[in-house]
Design brief:
587 residues; mainly beta; OB fold (Dihydrolipoamide Acetyltransferase, E2P); 13-stranded mixed β-sheet; five-stranded mixed β-sheet; 6 helices; Vgr_OB-fold_dom_sf; Gp5/Vgr_OB
């Protein structure tokens, strides 16, 4: 393969005369191109002391390369790369410009999506739509075809660039994420197979069998169904590659004890299905990583994500380093894993977004499922006008038909934490005051006043100051019950009516006096017998008239005397009037 056949373009203009070229393609990071040029390629006839000034102008420019296919293996697939120059190194030799070189380092185009931490969330979306949204925001050419096709209730990008977010999302759901030529791949890897053979384009090849522990039972709590979801990953695969089968079986023999692994998922009714799907991907990734291969070839068609076929056995490429020397020779060094499955070898079921506690605002508190949940909006969600799904609320006590049913109001500021630090599993810890939402005025320097107050003005106030202890229950209209601990008094006040109702007996007992005072009438009514008893005197006093009336009879009796006195007394019996006594005096 001749040097003159390798083409390098900077901003569409061909640059000739490179000394060495190396392109590293790795599914775990951006592709990196490094090209060495004699410095005078860019500096021209500039004095040596000025060398490097023009070379620096290449920073930020677009660069592309094209290495032709290997005619030896009759494979005409070219090696291509497009990227952005992100680093320029000026290397000068002592007393001679023969060693003066310019090294241009470029990253693949997806570097523009790795522009610093960002925050976002996606609700009820599929992986494909999330990936498309992220790639289109940067104008990246992308091929998106994830194997996981279910709708995901809540996905969070937390303190991650778009590139880091998609990279982690791929690990979490077992999807490949890599860059090749000018395209971002998210989902199923390439179906292209490159056949390599010794004595043609394969120089060196090494295989490692590394048995691993893969007997796990993944467990997750599902509060929506009030059950613990489990998925036992113990099982067997029937791989086409016999080496993979041997390594897998050896792993079972070496690591015999099953381990329980707890996973924190954003709860939904299909959490069990999600757990089974992701644990299967996790298991497959472990199995694939039991086979590691590396080698050297002359075929530039070898690239990450592709399958290489060596002696009828397939291996999936994970890293390839291409080199073109100044003499025109091309080689590549490759690394790979078992090619029997399409799951990403980087899969990690615990690759969730991590977060510490955050401040949020309540956006909804009417949980139609009556689980006492709320929706909140983090500060970083406000710009997009989005919020969380329904999340749980920590209360001092909760149980079946019981508990403290105090829920924050819409607009309240709350502290939100996350189960296991998973940003996709938030829950509200409690509410906090701030400048625009201060506590009521019932505070004191000695912290002697505690209160519970609702938005309707209903208040319970506890005063703990020595000698002034009291409990007050009051509403916004001033209706109140006051328990004055310091005086052992209880006062009940109503602006209108007070009604006391007892299903059986109603007893009032006072160690001293009982005073009943009405601004108008006092009425008492007994369905059967009405009895008033006094230990000493019994007085009935009326400012005008006093009337005692019974439908049958009235009896007045004194143990010694009975006296009826008035300036005029009328005794009238419509039928008969009887006056009896031992001695009857009529005057």
């Amino acid at each position: 393969m001749g040097l003159e056949l390798t083409t390098i373009l900077i901003e569409g203009k061909e640059v000739e005369g490179f000394q060495h070229l190396k392109l590293t393609q790795n599914i775990d990071t951006h592709n990196e191109l490094q090209v060495h040029f004699p410095m005078d390629i860019f500096e021209g006839d500039e004095p040596i002391e000025n060398h490097g000034l023009k070379s620096k102008d290449n920073l930020g420019k677009k660069i592309s390369i094209q290495v032709p296919g290997n005619s030896i293996s009759n494979f005409d697939k070219e090696l291509k790369f497009t990227g952005i120059i992100t680093e320029v190194s000026i290397v000068r030799g002592e007393n001679t410009d023969a060693g003066n070189i310019t090294i241009l380092t470029a990253k693949s185009n997806d570097i523009i999506s790795n522009d610093g931490p960002n925050y976002n969330s996606f609700e009820n979306m599929k992986l494909s739509n999330i990936a498309k949204e992220c790639c289109s925001a940067y104008g990246l050419t992308a091929k998106i075809n994830p194997a996981y096709n279910s709708t995901i209730e809540y996905v969070v990008q937390h303190n991650e660039s778009a590139y880091q977010f998609l990279h982690r999302l791929g690990r979490q759901y077992g999807e490949w994420f890599y860059y090749n030529e000018d395209t971002v791949y998210f989902g199923k890897p390439s179906t292209e197979t490159v056949k390599l053979s010794f004595n043609m384009d394969l120089i060196d090849f090494q295989t490692k069998l590394i048995p691993k522990s893969h007997d796990y039972k993944f467990v997750s709590n599902n509060y929506l169904l009030d059950k613990v979801e489990e998925d036992n990953t113990k099982g067997s695969f029937n791989f086409k590659n016999d080496k993979t089968n041997k390594a897998n079986n050896a792993g079972k023999e070496i690591f015999k004890n099953q381990k329980d692994v707890w996973i924190n998922f954003n709860n939904n009714e299909k959490a069990g299905d999600v757990l089974k799907s992701l644990s299967k991907k996790h298991r497959e990734a472990i199995a694939m990583n039991q086979i590691k291969v590396n080698g050297v070839s002359l075929n530039p068609a070898v690239a990450p994500g592709k399958i290489i076929d060596i002696d009828g056995e397939n291996y999936r490429m994970t890293k390839v380093t291409h080199s073109v020397s100044y003499a025109g020779g091309y080689t590549n060094q490759f690394e790979g894993i078992s090619g029997d499955l399409e799951t990403s070898p980087l899969t990690d079921i615990n690759s969730f977004p991590k977060s510490e506690s955050q401040i949020a605002i309540i956006t909804d508190n009417h949980d139609e499922n009556s689980l006492g949940r709320v929706k909140v909006q983090f500060a970083w969600q406000k710009k997009q006008g989005i919020s969380t799904p329904w999340i749980r609320l920590v209360v001092p006590h909760a149980g079946e038909g019981q508990g403290m049913e105090f829920f924050p109001e819409i607009g309240d500021q709350v502290i939100v934490d996350f189960e296991g630090g998973n940003a996709e599993c938030p829950y509200v810890v409690g509410s906090v005051y701030h400048k625009s939402q201060k506590p009521a005025s019932n505070t004191s320097s000695g912290n002697d006043v505690k209160a519970i107050k609702t938005k309707g003005g209903s208040t319970i106030i506890f005063k703990d100051k020595g000698g002034e202890e009291s409990i007050t229950i009051e509403d916004k209209n001033g209706n109140s019950i006051v328990i004055d601990t310091s005086k052992d008094d209880i006062a009940i006040t109503a602006g209108n009516n007070i009604t006391l109702t007892a299903g059986a007996d109603f007893t009032i007992t006072a160690g001293g006096n009982v005073n009943i005072d009405a601004g108008s009438d006092i009425k008492t009514n007994a369905g059967s017998k009405h009895q008033n008893t006094s230990g000493l005197d019994f007085e009935i006093t009326a400012g005008i008239n006093a009337k005692i009336e019974a439908q049958v009879g009235i009896e007045a009796k004194g143990g010694a005397t009975a006296k009826l006195e008035a300036p005029m007394v009328d005794i009238n019996g419509s039928g008969m009037t009887n006056v009896k006594g031992g001695v009857v005096n009529l005057n």
